[in-house]
Amino acid sequence: MRRLRTEVGIVGAGPAGLALANVLARAGVDCLVVERSSRERVETRQRAGLLEHRTVRWLRGQGLADGLLADATRHGWCDFRCLGHTVRVDYGAYSGGREHWVYPQQRLVSDLIGTLEKAGPPPLFSHTVRAVTDVASRRPRLKCEGMEIECDYVVGCDGFRGVSRAALPATGHRVHNRRYPYDWLTVLAEVDRPAEGVVYAVHPDGFAGMMPRGPRISRFYLQCPPDDSPDAWPAGRIVKELRGRLAGALPTIGALPEVRMLRMRSSVTEPLSHGRLLLAGDAAHVLTPSGAKGMNLAIADAAHLGTALVNRLRHGDGRALASYSSARGADARRVLGFSEWLLGLLHLPNETGAGGPRAELRERLAAIRRLAEPGPESAAFAHRYVGSGAEDGPDDPPG
Ligand code: FAD
After folding, report:
1. What is the pLDDT of residue 391?
2. Same domain membership, residue 192 and residue 254
3. What's the gap in Å between 65 CA and the centre of ligand 1?
4. For residues 139-144, average pLDDT
């Protein structure tokens, strides 16, 4: 049995674990990231792509944004299509110039691995943590095949189905769990030109969306019945549905390298800690892709925890660590509220009122138009959507 010792053991080399490890390693805190997948796998896994204003501001402040500052594109508007109308919401203008940065998650992950290698030990790839134990003691442990790591703190950044959450006691934690009455087919598609911005379609056959990802690739979503199978969606049907629901100008869609079904659910676990185990990112809260918030929340957790653990371990100041769970839990619930509100706007109910789906659609169109006109409603939407960080705190200059 190989026995290792570190100050902070981090389970999972996703955006949360890697952002945290970078902060700790640069501050001279000994930490070790343990990741079950190979390096190649984590550097090629395509998921998110929209980084919020506040996320980029933090990454930049940490010197972790060189790749994205060089290569990301910026977007400050989105289009809603409904009843044959396209309504452009210029959220950049309504949030004082803040924009999204489009940068694929796998590129950010790859950048964070590269910067971590320069500051400290690289992640232990292809090592699965089987259990997190002794979390209520001063020496929690990560148990892997043939290896045990003794830590001062363990941070579980191992996603929704990881082992860290399972190490919480059975009682004493509140879990918000919600399963939505639909799923989303998620499709990565080769395109002849980049999506110029996010497009959302509210349609009687179900929601459809187009998200920019790169010059030759876009992500698309299609609402389906719950528990539908990707096998029911051959390429021809996908393209036909996208064209029908997103009616309007679209890039030409070519090969579909990824077609998956997303089971639409959300879950927030609170408190985000127990003893010396702290949860961050999807391990603590998982949201649907509505509003593109998951990776941004994961990095915001890492930002708080990085400062908190450095203060605790290097300066003996435990205040930020003590406030971690309440501060980050409150932010996750606030962001979940926004994400659910957007889901409500984009999906028609199964049962429509006396006026039928057309009356519902007219109401949606009116609500969307309010987001496109200057005023408090569009400003509130813009700040929440772009993640300005100014929603409930002091304002900051656009960057
Ligand atoms: P993850 O990225 O899931 O990383 C967890 C890591 O832990 C993985 O590498 C995993 O292999 C590892 N692991 C798990 N178990 C173990 C174990 N036992 N031992 C060792 N390692 C383990 N978010 C946005 O902000 N914007 C978007 O536009 C967006 N679009 C999305 C589109 C799709 C299709 C999907 C699926 C998600 C999207 N998200 C988006 C969400 C975003 O991808 C996640 O919220 C983000 O990856 C969470 O980061 P994380 O570090 O918490 O977890």
Report:
1. 60
2. yes
3. 19
4. 98
Q: How far is the CA of 16 from the centre of ligand 1 (A)?
A: 8
- Both 194 and 126 in one domain: the answer is no
Instruction: Please give the residue range of the domain that contains residue 248.
Output: 183-262
CA 349, CA 369: separation in Å to the nearest integer? 20
Q: Is the dihedral of CA 253, 256, 260, 261 positive or negative?
A: positive
Q: pTM to 2 decimals?
A: 0.94
Domains contained in the chain, number: 2
User: In a mutational test of the pocket of ligand 1, which residue from 282, 290, 339, 385 has the highest number of ligand atoms less than 8 Å from its CB?
Assistant: 282
Verify that 218 and 307 share a domain, yes or no: no
pLDDT at 192 over 50: yes
Q: How confident is the model at residue 394 (pLDDT cuts 50, 70, 90)?
A: very low
> What atom in ligand 1 is closest to the CA of residue 52?
25
CATH code (residue 240): 3.30.9.10
Strand partners, 318: none
Tell me the CA–centroid distance for residue 378 and ligand 1, in Å: 30
Helix (H), strand (E) at residue 354: none
Give the torsion through C-alpha atoms of 112, 386, 390, 299, to 10 deg: -20
| CB neighbours of residue 41 within 10 Å | 14
Q: Is residue 29's pLDDT more than 50?
A: yes
The set of protein residues with a Cβ atom below 6 angstroms from ligand 1 is 11-17, 34-37, 42, 47-50, 105, 128-129, 157-159, 162-163, 186, 281-282, 289, 292-296, 298
Q: Is 319 a member of any domain?
A: yes
| 171 and 192, same domain (yes or no) | no
